[in-house]
């Protein structure tokens, strides 16, 4: 079973296995609120969206799925967010198994951490952070639902836990039909969800760096500096763009007070980091707002976290390359460090492949539907970047288009991991180099 020993094949296979198991469970009659079982395509779409921590849905989660079905969905996006390889390795460590080098590499690649280190220590940190953040956010949300909105304790606990797990895993699933639009003026609901999403999107290597080097900026690794800086920059840019573009929109921020405008602009600057919740009607966004979201969704969050997209470090490397060319510098880099050519080529390859995939999917869906191109493009980027935000067209897509979205969600979750692994492990040095000759560029 070579595939089970090869991280390039093992990671997609494990995610695929989780999707198939989830599809089977969601296809059971007990999984739906009605008497009939869910159609296979509906179950497959929902399971893929959950395992890939995307959040796109073709049915209303709280009304279509039974309590059993909703628990299955919660477990699927918890598994998908935590990482199939991380969970499998952690169970193996607890059982006292001794893993070989390739299995250790596979585990580290799922967290995009190929440096040497204590795998067991890293996995314990992942588990600790997951439990602590999800537990605290669940407690805050549960208390707010119970005391401020009069929910019965059991119902408040369910909604609190569901949204906490969904937020930290950047899944975007909600146990409310309108996501969190009913709480758009409540900072005690939106605030913890935002913070949980940001923490999940930073990536566990950043937390490992925080633990090892405390909060001393000078001792942080280049990866951590780039991730934190790019994340803050994109959050501020997204907030400013959202506030400026939607300020007078009567269907979104227009009727709100100043405080609510600031709160919801901040909330929707975080959501394109692959979270998928919405406190505003995304379908009512201005055209320029949708375009800004294309950019933010495509970039996504930090490497080795629960976010998707091409990753903020990939974007930062590309930005540094462009800047170095403009300034006529020989090397591209940041914070007093230069990038290796292998990293630059990986960033270019991942971005080019992602762009081609989104372009091809958008072209196909636009050719078989009469939906507006900007909405189709938004849906495809959201699926690939595992964001889950939608203008409301997901359920209206024909079956073939839904299958394309399913493929985008799966590739978006495991594709960047697989490509990065293949590029990192598949390098072959030739014993010779061809003669250099440069074509005309530009």
Report on this structure.
Its main location: membrane. It is found in: Cell membrane. Keywords: Cell membrane, Ion transport, Membrane, Transmembrane, Transmembrane helix, Transport. This is TrkH family potassium uptake protein. The chain crosses the membrane at residues 71-95, 122-147, 188-207, 228-247, 294-327, 347-368, 403-425. With 442 residues, the protein is an all-alpha fold. It has one domain (2-425). 63% of the residues lie in helices and 1% in strands. The chain is built from 17 helices and 2 strands. The chain has helices at residues 7-26, 40-51, 61-64, 67-82, 84-94, 101-110, 119-149, 153-168, 187-202, 204-213, 222-246, 258-270, 287-299, 312-326, 341-368, 373-384, 399-425; strands at residues 333-334, 337-338. The chain has a two-stranded antiparallel ribbon. A hairpin with a 2-residue loop joins β1 (333-334) and β2. α1 (7-26) runs antiparallel to α4 (67-82), α5 crosses α6 and α8 packs parallel to α9 (187-202). The longest helix has 31 residues, at 119-149. The termini are far apart. The model is unreliable at 87-117 (pLDDT under 50).
């Amino acid at each position: 079973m070579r595939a089970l020993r090869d991280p390039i094949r093992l990671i997609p296979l494990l995610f695929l296995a989780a999707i198939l198991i989830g599809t089977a469970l969601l296809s059971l009659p007990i999984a739906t609120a009605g008497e009939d079982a869910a159609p296979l395509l509906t179950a497959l779409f929902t399971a893929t969206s959950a395992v890939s921590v995307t959040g796109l849905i073709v049915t209303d989660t709280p009304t279509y799925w039974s309590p059993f079905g909703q628990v299955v969905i919660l477990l699927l996006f918890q598994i998908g967010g935590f990482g199939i390889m991380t969970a499998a390795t952690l169970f193996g460590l607890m059982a006292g198994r001794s893993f070989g080098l390739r299995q250790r590499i596979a585990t580290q690649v799922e967290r995009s951490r190929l440096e040497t280190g204590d795998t067991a220590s890293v996995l314990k940190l992942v588990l600790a952070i997951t439990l602590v953040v999800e537990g605290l956010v669940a407690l805050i949300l549960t208390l707010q639902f119970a005391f401020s909105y009069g929910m019965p304790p059991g119902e408040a606990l369910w909604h609190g836990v569901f949204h906490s797990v969904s937020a930290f895993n950047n899944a975007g699933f909600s146990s409310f039909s309108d996501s969190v639009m009913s709480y758009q003026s409540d900072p005690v609901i939106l605030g913890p969800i935002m913070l949980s999403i940001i923490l999940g999107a930073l990536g566990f290597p950043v937390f490992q760096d925080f633990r090892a080097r405390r909060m001393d900026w000078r001792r942080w690794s280049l990866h951590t500096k780039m991730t934190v800086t790019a994340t803050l920059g994109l959050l501020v840019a997204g907030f400013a763009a959202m506030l400026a573009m939607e300020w007078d929109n009567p269907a979104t921020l227009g009727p709100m007070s100043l405080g609510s405008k600031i709160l919801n602009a901040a909330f929707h600057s975080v959501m394109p980091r692959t979270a998928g919740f919405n406190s505003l009607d995304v379908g009512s966004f201005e055209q320029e707002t949708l375009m800004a979201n294309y950019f933010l969704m495509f970039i996504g969050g930090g490497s080795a976290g629960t976010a998707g997209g091409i990753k903020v470090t990939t974007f930062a490397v590309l930005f540094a390359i462009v800047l170095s060319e403009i300034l006529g510098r020989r090397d591209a880099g940041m914070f007093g460090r230069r990038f290796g050519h292998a990293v630059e080529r990986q960033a270019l390859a991942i971005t080019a492949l992602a762009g081609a995939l989104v372009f091809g999917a958008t072209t196909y869906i636009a050719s078989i539907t009469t939906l507006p191109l900007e909405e189709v493009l938004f849906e495809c980027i959201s699926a690939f970047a595992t964001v889950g935000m939608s203008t409301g067209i997901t359920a209206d897509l024909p079956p073939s288009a839904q299958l394309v979205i399913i493929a985008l969600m799966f590739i978006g979750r495991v594709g960047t991991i697989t490509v990065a692994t293949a590029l990192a492990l598949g390098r072959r040095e030739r014993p010779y180099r061809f003669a250099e000759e440069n074509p005309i560029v530009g």
